[in-house]
Structure formats: C-alpha cells, structure tokens
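User: My instructor asked us to take a sequence, write out its structure as tokens, and then describe one feature of it. I'm not sure where to start. Here is the sequence I was given:
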Amino acid sequence: MTDILTVYIGWDSREPIAADVCRHSILKHATIPVDIHFLKQDDLRMRGFYSREVDKLASTEFTFTRFLVPALNNYEGTAIFMDSDMILVDDIAKLIERINPKKAVTCVQHDYTPKEGVKMDGQQQTVYPRKNWSSMVVWNCAHKGNKKITVDVVNDPDITGAYLHRFSWLKDREIGAVNPEWNWLTDWYVEPRDGSPKLLHYTEGGPWFENYEDCAYANVWNAYHDEYLETLNNPTISASDLTLPKDIRNDIKDLLKLRRDPFGIFNEDSMDNIIERIIQSHNTPGCMGIVDAGVTQPKGESKLDVIVESFLLGSNGVFGASKHVELTDLSVPVVVRGIAKKKVIHRCLEEERDFYYIDTGYFGNGKHKKYHRITKNALQYSAPLYQQCRDDRFLKTGVTINRHTQGRNVLLCPPSQKALSYWSVDLAEWLEATIDEIKQHTDRPIVVREKQSRHARVNVDTMEMALSQDVHCLVTYNSIAAVEALIFGKPVFTMGPNAAQPLANTDLKKIATPYMPSIHEVRNLCCNLAYNQFTPKEMQEGTAWHILQENYSR
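Assistant: Let's start with the prediction itself. The structure tokens for your sequence are:
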C-alpha cells in the first residue's frame, strides 16, 4: 500500500453537500493518510480529461468521469472511487486490507435490481446488469487491464454507459469482490441478515433531498452532516489536505505530533523549533505564477488557472500578477502559461530573472492535454541532450517511433501570428519568404497547413493525418509539429527555436536531400523531452519541480 491513499469522490452541482459530508466521513475514521479529490466536470474539462457532451438525462454529473480514475492516477498505485451519496462509518484502511492486489478492480458485486422510475429528487432510475457495481470501486490503476480504459475511451461517444459500468473491458476473473458491508445499499440490504454496514450508500436518495428526509439511516447521515458543519465553524488543518504539496503535509504532520509532545520528550524537537523551521522554509516562495485574469464564474468568483496552480502546489509557489513581479526578489522565478504572457517573459529576460514556461506537451496527448511541457528560460526545451537519459517516462506515453519513409511533398506548418509576434515576426511575410526560398532549391509541391483550432487539430485533421499524405519533409518555425514529424519518420527544417532543433535541418538549401536522424537519435530526443513534460498530478505532487531542478543543474 502507498503512503497516501487517493480517493476520488463523484461531485454533482445539484448536491454538493453530499460530497462534503462524504469527505468528512472518510477523514473522521481514516487511520492512514488520505488525499481526497472531487471529480468536478468543469475542472476535468479544463484539464483536458473530459470532453463528452453534457448529458441532461444522466443521473449524475459523474456518470462517466469515475472511469477516468486510472488516468488521473497516472496508471499507478491504488485509488478508490466513491459516489457522493455515501458515508463511511468505519476506517477506510480496513477496506484496503481486503483487496486482492492481482485484481484490476474490486467492488461489491450486488445482485440488485431496483424498480423502474425515478430517484434522487426526480432523476431517472436506469436498470442494467451489475447495477451499482461501479458506485464504489477500488482501482488497481497499474493493472494491465486498466490500461485499456484510456481518456479517449471514456470520452468516445460510441462507448456507452452500459459498457463502462459493467467493466466490459475486463475479464470476469479480473474483477475482485468485497462484502456488501462496503457498499451497503440502504434500500436493499438489511441488518443483521446481510451483515453490518461500514459504508452506507443512499442510492435512491438521501436526507439532503426533501423527499428523502425520512429514508433509512437518515439519522446517521444527519449526524455526520452536523459534525461537518461544526468543522466549518471551528476549522482544523488535516495532514491529508489534498491541496497541499508533500513538504507542507509533512510539516503539518510534525506539528500534529508535537501538539501532543510540545516539549520534545519523545520526538526530540519542540513546537517553537518546528514552527521556526516552517516559517523559514515557506516564507520565501519557490516561484510566482502570473495569472492576471482568471475565468469569471456566474457567481462572480475568479477561477484560477488549474495547471499553474498544480505547478505552484508542488514547488512552494504563490499566485501573483504582472505588477507583483517587481515586488519580489530577483531570486524568485516567475511561472507563466502560454505565449500571451510574452511581456512578462521579455521582462524576465531583461532583468535576468529565471522563468518557467508552461504550454502543450511535446507528444502523448492525443485528443486531451494529458502532458504539459515546462521549460526554464525558454519556450521549448533548449538544453543539451542527455545521452544517457532514462526511457521510463517516454515509455509511459505509449508513443511509437516510425522508421523513415520517402515522400514527395514539402509540408509547411507555419505557427500562429500570436506565436510569431513573440519574435516580432510577421506571419504573412515569413510565409511568403519561406515559400520563395523553398522554390529556389526544389520543385517539389508545397502543402501549407495553417494553424487550426485545437478541436480541428486533434479530431478532424491531425498532424498524423497530414504526415501520412506523401510527405517528403516538414518545415516550420517553432511548432512542436517538428517533434511529431521526427517521431513519424520525416525529416524536419526548423527556422526558429525548437525542441527538435538538435536533430533538425536549418538550411533550406538542403531541402532536396535533408538529414534524417536514426530511430535511436529520435528516441533519445523523446526520452529527454519526456523528462520535461508533466501531468497536472505530477506537478501537484512536486515531481515536476524536482525533475526540473535536476535537469537544469547538470
């Protein structure tokens, strides 16, 4: 078992209180560190994990998002999913102790057939085999069977709810079982005939709905609800707070221990000493994330950039605005996301202040932005390639490198004007000059692929599709399409700073006979780049920050 157990709770805007009470019940009894995440559709959409059309007939907003758990957990470790209409009345560690680690998923395998009709204050009740099996799932995220349940699969409109809720991608022998006490359907199971509940599931409606105030076990839920409200009036800090990076969680754990041993009799430290150490370590931020304008929500609240926030959590960073840069010491690096922050970047360069730039990852994203590249003092990775770079992170992406194939057309991929404006380059002028120069050295047809919307790039006309159209080579300025072309087995010409530059041609005079690196060279480039792109979870946990410090200290 991992040091910290990750739990994902389904979240529905129609019943947020249910998720809050569920979270409270877990933390109340947990004897192990627990990180609890709410599966909020809006957040998952912003992070690129969820893109299904909104289904107004779905009984909950997390009908499909629960199946993103393996991907959200980076296909590593153990994670638990729970419906929000649940409360734990026992220690979650006891559930983990009952899990067969060889199973892909473990759940209560109900023999349950609800009545047709409605539930949850008017929501449609659907009936299907294995009903409620997926309402509480212990995921073995690393199991090979769960590698099939990708982000693309979950978001595929042709993949039905029936397919997902029945675990149809798994063999029956890969589905483990625990006793009904760990998913006690309050309208179905009976004490003591079926045992004693450890996890109550108000599947047809709970006491937070007006029509279900007198449902079975309503008194239990109401007691937990009252406790939760009391914590709001008297807030306490939990060592397992998921919004805190690992180093801060560890500091809080030490504080909680010293609360019972303030004189350091057993822990050989004092409350004063550890508080001073925490002040010194966290008073100066590791970096400052520049977010000048959040997304305004209907209630007038500002929604922060979740990707920048993830990175800040893992790097002891803080949010700031452009105007705050001058107020911080030059030793504090700045974090920006997207080329729109070019003024801040140029200012950092002028002041010789370090900055970290976040944008779309180099590869491995598909239809959804799983990976985000992070570079220090550049828009793309520009440090010398490490010739003995490990391949573990590259292998996780599932990307395959193709052998070089011959083609006829020159594929010209200009960047957007927004990107070129960073270098004060006019798109029309660059495109015209580049086409003229290519024509001076070859009579091959030139195919111009203008920058499209992200939806078009990943759904309608992907780069792989474009590279499949009898391509001789690819020419670009700074587009990461150059890396994709090398992976596809096509030589590239880069006219500006580019992560593919170590293996790229830069002189258009050689366009008829360009250099094409070997598969080994391309693979080594990809291994290096894989250590410079990260998932939001890796950012939040501090993995990205620590890897970047190592990368740029060589």
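For the description part of your assignment, you could build on this observation: The chain has a mean pLDDT of 86. Try explaining in your own words what that tells you about the chain.
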